[in-house]
Amino acid sequence: MAVTVAARRLIPVNATTVGFAYLLLVLVVASTWGFIEASVLSIAATVAFNFFFLPPVGTLTIADPQNWVALFTFLTTSLIASRLSTVARRRALDAIDRQQDIERLYAFSRAILLIEGSEPFPGELIRKLAEIFQLDLAVLYDRRTGGFYRAGPFELQGLEDQLQNPALDGIVRSNDQFCTLSAIRLGSEPIASLAIKGSHITDSVLQGIANLVAIGLERARAQHLAHQIEATKRSEELRTTLIDAMAHEFKTPLTSIRATTTLLLDSPDQAKESQMELLRIADEEAQHLGNLIDDTVAMARLDTGHIKVNLALTDLTEIVDEVVQSLRTEIQGRSLEIIQDREAPVSAIDGTLVKLALKQLIENALKYSIPGTPIKIRVHQEDGFVALEVTDQGKGIPVQEQNRIFERFYRSPSVQNQIPGSGLGLSIAQSIMHAHGGDLTVTSYPGETTFRLILPGLNKGENLERGENSGR
């Protein structure tokens, strides 16, 4: 209408110019809305062109046969141009959709690689899929574990049985709830199935999603197997290391005991004072051997993954004295200071396990501190708990490693090739404290490191008697 008024009243032009203006308007409509709208406009423009610009003006008749050809040509050109413009527009939209699909698939593949182990991998994977593709519902059935994992705000009942069929037969199907069910294959074997709802996804994109899910599930499975293999390997290495270490430790007191008994047997007539000295040495080494056996039994208890503590009221000062005495050879030549409250702290603990934990801390202090520097052991009570602190004057532990040192097998890169160790001592000590309802903490900066064993104190009215055992 605007073109007609402008050509008739405002800017008088010839019929050819008006025809091109109508044709341009048809192309604009075709590229903006579509072929149907452009076709209606083409017919309307043809009628207006005939009525207002072809003689006799004001009628729908055409006097000149050549104008019939012009009018038919105009209509044909309009329709063809509309069709071509609509096809081009549809292809452009399809190209945009394909680009979005590729971008979503790429984002999904990156999300799979970045999934961490904070929750089950299939659950995190299906949640990422629902977020990236904006799905109302996504359900994954893992055939290997038999688990179902859901994501999205929508809920549908009865999908479990339907999902098990695609996982078994590998067929892609739709159900009466407008969900698309697809098999997840690894090669030719269906390993899972997927149900999605809420977004139009082409078959090619669905196949791409299925392939990425299959790759993700297999990658998670491979990582899990690798962790199991590594854990088994480390366990075997640890077992071998402990056996070697214990064999070496056992030989030392046995050698001393054998030497003293040999001297007694070879020289039965020596002075009574010499005999008593040799017997004292043999007795001390036998006690040392007994402590080693106790430690070995305690390690075996810890290796089961479930620590059972046998509680008894115990003087912690006696615990410290016994551990220091058992390490007298290692401590020899080092300054050791023991600080304790005026009243000896008493707690309900498993003495064997707590001695093992304290021994780990003192041995660490001896290994990682500078030779010749003093080591301090403090025993005190505060705020309803009892604490055993071991302080050394070593290089300190970097802040970023202070949480990791309690992980099983972890050793700092700065010392793992310089100082022997298995990376289990602090983990064992912390597990012992947790089994008692306590904790093991560390405070460290260059020049000083303090490890703190925290044990529950005695409540008022505690009626455990010294030496009474209770399982936990």
Q: Helices, strands, pairings?
A:
Layout: H1 2-10, H2 15-32, H3 35-53, H4 65-114, H5 121-132, E1 137-142, E2 147-151, H6 159-169, E3 173-174, E4 180-186, E5 189-197, H7 203-266, H8 272-303, E6 310-315, H9 316-326, H10 328-331, E7 336-340, E8 346-349, H11 351-368, E9 375-382, E10 385-392, H12 425-435, E11 439-445, E12 448-456, E13 470-471
Parallel strand pairs: 7-9
Antiparallel strand pairs: 1-2, 1-5, 3-4, 4-5, 6-8, 6-13, 9-10, 10-12, 11-12
Helix pairs in contact: 2-3, 2-4, 3-4, 4-5, 4-7, 7-8, 9-11, 11-12
Short description:
By secondary structure, the protein is of the alpha+beta class. The protein has twelve helices and 13 strands. A five-stranded antiparallel β-sheet has the order 2-1-5-4-3, with helices on both faces.
Give me the Rg, rounded: 42 Å
Mean pLDDT: 76
CATH architecture classification name of the largest domain: 2-Layer Sandwich
Number of helices: 12
Proportion of strand residues: 15-25%
Largest beta-sheet details: 5 strands, antiparallel
The N- to C-terminal Cα distance equals 93 Å
| The CATH homology group name of the largest domain | Histidine kinase-like ATPase, C-terminal domain
What level of helicity do the residues show? 40-55%
CATH topology of the largest domain: Heat Shock Protein 90
Number of DSSP-assigned strands: 13
Gross geometry:
rod-shaped
